[in-house]
């Protein structure tokens, strides 16, 4: 029990992850989402709800693609990732159709290793096959932990096509329908079908995901309630159906009925049951009263919404019929028209019966329409119908030499020639014939002799069990075999029919089918089945037949080797043809798809990749690139403005130039001046009519190019329709101004720009001259040029720019003090980005007192006094005002000293020599060559500079003096001596004494305050 519970939880997590991963990307937030293509979807509410919760999202172009299908390869990747499985490429080795370098191989192997799948056969996985509705339901039932419950519940009888559901899915589909988790689709006769083989769509996934997410507990409770009750008793079967008169039928059941209702009995062909009653003395026989039956018409009975398989032929009224000439009529003693005359009349007819061989219908011109046409000329009869349009054409007899249809359009064709077991009637579709649906209930030969003709969707009903059905010519519609033990033959076409015998698609929905390729080398394009199907005849034809589904082909041993060899040859030739195709992309795609089809056929019949020349290169290069282009091309479209679509363009759409990942590039061209890439939308003038525009998108992926034509309608302006004026207000480029007041001059409309600087005026009358004014407090005002708008136009105004006060100035670093002139130099950088440079000025403050106003000049020298402190400020101004933030710096002016004398000195003997001569350069040069050779130092005496007199009573401090010489690696020795009551600075001469010297660190004290002194320079020469 514990293990079962754990498995159930894993299933729940797996399916939710699977369903949500199937959708292209997760939304990052719960923002409301509006898709461009879900308005017509039956699951639009569920799609919107899940999108708002961030569970699913659409594509980059704003669409959801509700009808999009998925493949088994995609399913494998999603399941493996949802379960957190590691890729396992080795475990996919058994599958011939999973290439070693395919992107999905590791995911397929992961599912095999975990026991989730065994493939469609022991050697195939069918990666390109779609996921059917019955497969999807199985996943959900397993996810809800109801698989074992489903297997205990009887198979439902409420779905008319349960016989088409695979055996492994019947229990799951039945339970899902009974608990209301899935719905069916209504047939024309009121019964419900499930369509199990139809591929699953994204909208179905969205609806089931929503139900699973929100009502999971409700469905599990319903299932438990159903299974806790006694299983419903099997309904009595209908054993016979007899016609007693033109308005009376008798139905016999296999067991007694508890009660009856006329509403339980339904017939096709507009026959209505008006009353139902038990036959006197019986609960098994029911007498039905009906509306008047048409003589010879076959009526099929459904009981409680389920087809009974029983039919009855309408009785003739008392006194005999009209020989099939119903639907005519005369008056005033006129003659009665024959059937041939009626069918040639080009006037609408109701029900007619042809019982004589011949040609019927107008020879040319307008057609004759018939509600119900019965062809019953007898076993040897031959009939040609031309230019006739029956809603229902029923063939009850005819020879093997044909019922021929020429230029005839039929809604539904029924072939039911059961007057003799050996009778075979042939139906031939000649030129100009279209049949929407063909239903075969007897032996028949079906032939198409024109590429422009079709027998539509062909269904072989259970009534042809064990009977031979022959096909000739090209059968383009899908053939469905519902009859068990059916015998199918593909024979050579008749004389004069130039079309090869080929069936595009066949679905075998019953066991025991035998297909004999007796006269064709073309085979069947796609054979879909979950059953074993026996094949015999031409090995060439079998090697052209692709199998899909969980069924298998059974071949005679003598055929197997020949089929494999031929299949390999077919695949190689098709790949060569695909590589050699350089025409339109549609041609390339068709040849790649055909090569892929034949490659899969070869794999099915036992070939491996290395036996097929160029298979690996084909799979990894040509096929990959072509399929990427094929899948991307449908997504190429304009990005329409909100409210617009291809059918109605009123605003300029966006022309995408690349895919989201950049792997595809797109160029656009147009056949119209109204809408073209790079240009504005030019709508037709009011009264001139809408314009249909054809756009051509050319898509490149580095290897191939393809084109897609998109037709759109540009709507004309309506004469009294108001328009829109919109634009941006800019400040400092490239920034935009929010909160700006914008006025539409000529109206009473004003608005304020949003956080992006954008504004919009709606309901603007056309044909009037306007200007737009933008301003804001502490900003300038900007006015646009005059303009007019057309009806319904969205007009973008010209550049509107407003400015405010300048930005804060910034000082250059470092600032400069000139001791010679006694000035302090201020230098700064102005910020013009938010202001108007033409009106900008700078106010300079010294100790908070206005000193000067300068224009664009960013440099000013200010006199200062030694020993005094200053605070300098600069503010930027323009015509709007001044920036309240001033740039600020502080400075205390230092004192300066000069050299009074410089004398040579002998530090050993203490002898002082005469003062050195100078050359009066800067720095002052002293001629060392005149010094005695015995001097090893110099004595320096300092004095006040005239512009910087040290206050009287100050004490000079030498203690922190540092003497350096240019290019001398170490500081020069110095000390203080006192001679005759005066202080001198003694500098020890270095080994190379000549050069530039700097003395710094002098200070003086005055009234307890220490003052700095600028450095002193001199030069020894």
UniProtKB/TrEMBL annotation:
Keywords: Signal. Residues 1-29 form the signal peptide. The keyword Signal applies. Pfam families: aBig_2 (PF20578), CarboxypepD_reg (PF13620), SLH (PF00395). InterPro entries: aBig_2 (IPR046780), Carb-bd-like_fold (IPR013784), Cell_Envelope_Struct_Comp (IPR051465), Cu-Rt/internalin_Ig-like (IPR014755), SLH_dom (IPR001119). One of its GO terms (molecular function) is carbohydrate binding. It comes from the Bacteria. Residues 30-93, 94-154, 156-223 form the SLH domain. SUPFAM superfamilies: Starch-binding domain-like. PROSITE patterns: SLH. This is SLH domain-containing protein.
């Amino acid at each position: 029990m514990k293990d079962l519970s754990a498995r159930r939880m894993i299933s729940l997590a797996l399916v939710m992850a699977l369903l949500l991963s199937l959708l292209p990307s997760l939304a990052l937030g719960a923002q409301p989402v509006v898709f461009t293509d879900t308005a017509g979807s039956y699951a639009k509410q569920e799609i919107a709800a899940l999108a708002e919760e961030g569970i699913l999202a659409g594509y980059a172009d704003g669409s959801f693609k509700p009808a999009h299908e998925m493949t088994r390869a995609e399913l494998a990747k999603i399941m493996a990732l949802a379960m957190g499985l590691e890729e396992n490429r080795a475990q996919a080795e058994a599958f011939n159709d999973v290439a070693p370098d395919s992107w999905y191989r590791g995911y397929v192997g992961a599912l095999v290793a975990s026991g989730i799948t065994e493939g469609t056969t022991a050697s195939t996985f069918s990666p390109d096959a779609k996921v059917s509705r019955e497969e999807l339901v199985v996943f959900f039932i397993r996810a809800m932990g109801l698989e074992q419950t489903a297997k205990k519940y009887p198979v439902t009888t409420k779905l008319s096509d349960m016989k088409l559901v695979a055996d492994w899915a019947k229990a799951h589909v039945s339970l899902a329908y009974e608990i209301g988790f899935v719905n069916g689709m209504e047939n024309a006769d009121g019964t419900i079908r499930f369509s199990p083989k139809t591929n699953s769509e994204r909208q179905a996934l969205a609806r089931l995901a929503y139900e699973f997410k929100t009502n999971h507990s409700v469905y599990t409770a319903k299932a438990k309630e159903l299974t806790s009750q006694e299983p419903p008793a099997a309904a009595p079967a209908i054993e016979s159906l007899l016609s007693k008169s033109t308005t009376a039928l008798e139905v016999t059941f296999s067991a007694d009925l508890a009660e009856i209702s006329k509403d339980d009995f339904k017939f096709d062909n507009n026959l209505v049951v008006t009353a139902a009653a038990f036959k006197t003395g019986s609960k098994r026989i029911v007498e039905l009263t009906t509306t008047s039956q048409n003589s010879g018409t076959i009526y099929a009975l459904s009981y409680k919404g389920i087809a009974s398989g029983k039919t009855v032929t309408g009785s003739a009224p008392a006194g005999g019929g009209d020989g099939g000439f119903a639907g005519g009529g005369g008056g005033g003693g006129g003659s009665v028209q024959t059937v041939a005359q009626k069918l040639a009349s080009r006037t609408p007819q109701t029900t007619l019966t042809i019982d004589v061989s011949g040609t019927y219908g107008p020879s040319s011109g307008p057609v004759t329409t018939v509600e119900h046409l019965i062809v019953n000329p007898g076993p040897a009869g031959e009939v040609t119908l031309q230019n006739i349009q029956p809603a229902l054409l029923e063939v009850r007899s005819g020879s093997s030499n044909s019922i021929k249809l020429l230029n005839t359009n039929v809604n539904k064709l029924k072939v039911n020639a059961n007057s003799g077991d050996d009778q075979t009637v042939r139906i031939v579709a000649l030129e100009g014939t279209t049949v929407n649906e063909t239903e075969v209930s007897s032996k028949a030969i079906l032939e198409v002799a024109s590429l422009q003709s079709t027998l539509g969707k062909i269904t072989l009903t259970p009534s042809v069990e064990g009977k031979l059905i022959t096909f000739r010519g090209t059968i383009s519609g899908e053939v469905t075999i519902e009859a068990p033990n059916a015998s199918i033959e593909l024979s050579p076409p008749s004389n004069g029919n130039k079309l090869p015998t080929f069936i595009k698609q066949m679905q075998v929905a019953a066991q025991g089918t035998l297909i004999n390729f007796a006269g064709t080398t073309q085979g069947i394009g796609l054979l879909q089945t979950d059953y074993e199907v026996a094949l015999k005849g031409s090995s060439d034809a079998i090697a052209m037949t692709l199998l899909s589904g969980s069924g298998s082909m059974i071949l005679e041993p003598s055929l197997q080797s020949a089929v494999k060899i031929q299949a390999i040859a077919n695949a190689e030739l098709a790949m060569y043809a695909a590589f050699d195709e350089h025409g339109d992309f549609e041609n390339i795609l068709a040849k790649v798809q055909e090569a892929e089809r034949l490659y899969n056929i070869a794999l099915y019949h036992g070939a491996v990749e290395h036996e097929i020349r160029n298979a690996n290169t084909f799979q990894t290069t040509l096929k990959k690139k072509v399929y990427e282009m094929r899948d991307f091309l449908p997504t190429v479209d304009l990005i329409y403005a909100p409210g617009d679509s291809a059918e109605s363009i009123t605003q300029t759409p966006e022309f995408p130039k690349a895919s989201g990942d950049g792997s595809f590039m797109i160029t656009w061209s147009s056949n119209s001046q109204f809408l073209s890439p790079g240009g504005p939308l030019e709508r037709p003038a009011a009264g001139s009519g809408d314009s249909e525009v054809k756009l051509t998108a050319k898509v490149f992926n580095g290897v191939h190019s393809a084109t897609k034509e998109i037709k759109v309608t540009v709507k004309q302006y309506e004469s009294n329709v108001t328009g829109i004026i919109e634009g941006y207000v800019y400040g400092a480029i490239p920034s935009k101004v929010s909160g700006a007041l914008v006025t539409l001059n000529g109206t009473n409309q004003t608005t304020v720009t949003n956080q992006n600087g954008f504004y919009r005026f709606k309901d603007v009358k056309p044909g009037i001259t306007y200007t737009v004014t933008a301003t804001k407090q502490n900003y300038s005002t900007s006015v646009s040029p005059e303009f007019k708008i057309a009806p319904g136009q969205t007009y973008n105004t010209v550049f509107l720019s407003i400015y405010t006060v300048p930005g804060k100035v910034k000082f250059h670093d470092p600032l400069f003090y000139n001791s010679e002139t006694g000035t302090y130099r201020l230098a700064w950088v102005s910020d013009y980005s938010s202001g108007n440079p033409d009106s900008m000025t700078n106010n300079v403050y010294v100790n908070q007192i206005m000193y000067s106003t300068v224009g664009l000049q960013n440099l000013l020298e200010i006199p200062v006094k030694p020993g005094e402190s200053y605070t300098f400020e600069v503010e930027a101004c323009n015509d709007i005002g001044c920036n309240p933030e001033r740039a600020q710096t502080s400075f205390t002016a230092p004192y300066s000293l000069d050299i009074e004398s410089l004398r040579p000195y002998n530090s050993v003997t203490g002898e002082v020599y005469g003062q050195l001569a100078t050359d009066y350069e800067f720095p002052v040069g002293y001629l060392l060559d005149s010094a005695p050779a015995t001097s090893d130092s110099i004595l320096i005496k300092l004095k006040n500079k005239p512009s910087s007199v040290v206050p009287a009573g100050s004490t000079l401090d030498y203690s922190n003096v540092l003497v350096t010489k240019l290019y001398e690696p170490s500081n020069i020795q110095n000390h203080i001596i006192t001679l005759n009551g005066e202080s001198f600075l003694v500098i020890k001469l270095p080994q190379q004494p000549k050069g530039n010297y700097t003395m710094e660190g002098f200070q003086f004290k005055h009234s307890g305050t220490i003052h700095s002194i600028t450095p002193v320079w001199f030069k020894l020469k």
